[in-house]
Amino acid sequence: MSHIVWEFKVGTHCCILARVRAHSGSKGDLSVNFSTITPKKPNSALHKVARVRLTSGFEITAYIPGIGYNSQEHSVVLVRGGRVKDLPGVRYHIVRGTLDAVGVKDRQQGRSSAL
Questions:
Q1: CB atoms near residue 70 (< 10 Å)
Q2: C-alpha 89: how far from its chain's center?
Q3: CATH of domain 26-94
């Protein structure tokens, strides 16, 4: 393998890793505002989402799973990956039951960190 090809492959890999690390969520992500958005056709609903400022400085849109939420502006939330297929631009989930995001009220089963 020529040195130029090797350099190109290594360089691309490093750039991808840097991009992934920059967007990764961590404890202490600050929620900016909350809103509802409608899904793509043919579905209809009002899904709850939040604009979250990551510790890396990026601002992302994260989905709030479950029924109801009590988070407010400037709440500290934990963000995990995972897109919502019918919501354009939503590629992250807020983890319920951690930090300022409380778990789903009156939920007896399925209380994992995914909700």
A1: 9
A2: 10
A3: 2.40.50.140
